[in-house]
What we know:
Chain A is α/β, with parallel strands linked by helices. Helix content of chain A is 44%, strand content 18%.
Amino acid sequence: MTVYLIGIDGGGTSCRAAVAxxxxxxxxxxxxxxxxxxxxxxxxLDNIASATHAAFYAAGINARSIAxxxxxxxxxxxxxxxxxxxVKNRLPFAQAxxxxxxxxxxxxxxxxxxxxxxILGTGTIYISRHCETVTYVGxxxxxxxxxxxxxxxxxxxxxxxxxxxxxxxxxxxxxxSVLAEFKNDPRNIVEFARQAKPGAFGRYAPRVFEHMxxxxxxxxxxxxxAAVSVDEALDRLVARGTxxxxxxxxxxxxxxxxxxARHQSLLVTPEGDALSGAVALAVSRFGHLKAIE
Amino acid sequence: MTVYLIGIDGGGTSCRAAVAxxxxxxxxxxxxxxxxxxxxxxxxLDNIASATHAAFYAAGINARSIAxxxxxxxxxxxxxxxxxxxVKNRLPFAQAxxxxxxxxxxxxxxxxxxxxxxILGTGTIYISRHCETVTYVGxxxxxxxxxxxxxxxxxxxxxxxxxxxxxxxxxxxxxxSVLAEFKNDPRNIVEFARQAKPGAFGRYAPRVFEHMxxxxxxxxxxxxxAAVSVDEALDRLVARGTxxxxxxxxxxxxxxxxxxARHQSLLVTPEGDALSGAVALAVSRFGHLKAIE
Lengths: 293, 293
């Protein structure tokens, strides 16, 4: 009986699964709803199972093979023992490792080579590998971390809009558009911000990049400040020996022309995505094993 | 029957009351628990009544005179109509005006003169009066406002500690002391910050001023950034005509040597406190009225 390998990329907005043969050749991929093991482990388990079933179905493999399959999962919150324990004991696979979403992204982008990935999305985290040592920088979340992230850029835009409303900073086309969206009443911004989660702030980040392209000086200033914080983190990775950098996440491509020239010269194109990284890790860990009957 | 005037300074940590004769001479002051009309209006009403009763008792006036007294209350949240309506209808006075805590502070500090107060505490707000027009700047709260406030300075300290932990910024004696307090585990900082209210962040602000005095370069940088945001707000007030500035709030005295020289030359000592300002407003509004029987 063939033992299939499974890669899972579980995120707060969706969960992706890939099924592969023992050599790592991916047979099919599929997607399901969110898989946040910290905030909602049961839904995460449901969606991990759904995505896996869909991938097996797409590959034309009987779902009964899931029970003998071996998986590597990349998820946020893999460092929280309690959540990992809960999920790991309830997975439908014969064997599974739960790793960070960052590690599978690193593996997907760089394969077995040394280097670093900067995951620049709603949050920010940097993962580097140097002589088999994997190091994490940042990733502390919106409240006191994630500098340069979409959430922080969106937050900065709302704060800047209030400063412009008060006449403390100059109003620009960008801040005027935000103020108009909140019916020109700053209290609506305050109320929105009071309840906003990082993703809600992050939805304002693309607007800053758009207005920057149209020459908005305030947008350029906010992005310059964000890029400085990304460059400072990258400096730290370079000081530790990083010579290759992949920019990942929704803001990765946008940042590629905003980071410092000293870092632009180190940029490389990712070899594959996080899901292919999860599969690659499954191959190296479980590819040599026989079926457990 | 004498009609007494009452001033109330209601805040999130305590409520103060003063009772005065019709000419505004303060007969006694007293204090009770918090009076936040937004978060807990019934407790606020209880504490407003308690502080008032205590002031009347201290002045040797029968508490029955409270029902014929006229009051001015300065509170946070006076711009939220629903909360004001609820509280105003339940006050034990013959007549009362509910104003902002900022307005009574302005009145107390400057009397009837033009000028501005910068209230620099857990939050920040600026109130100016110019030719009888009162203007508010800032005061939007911790999430997207209150730059330069104790809460924002404390927040910046925690964020800076994580940057130092990651090696992105240099560790200083100050950030090392914070990290040690959180058992050298950055996750404890993240967890604290996740649940912290502005006051909890603000309790870290005095530490920044202390370390600045001891020559800590990181402390000096954080305070410089905070002072720039205060100076930018003061620039706005000066552009509107302000020629006198009082720095109030817990951080007011600490900021007096950190703001720009152009603003230091405009600083004046406050004539009185917010409670005396509330009484002064009560005199000007109600001092000429006869008793309502």
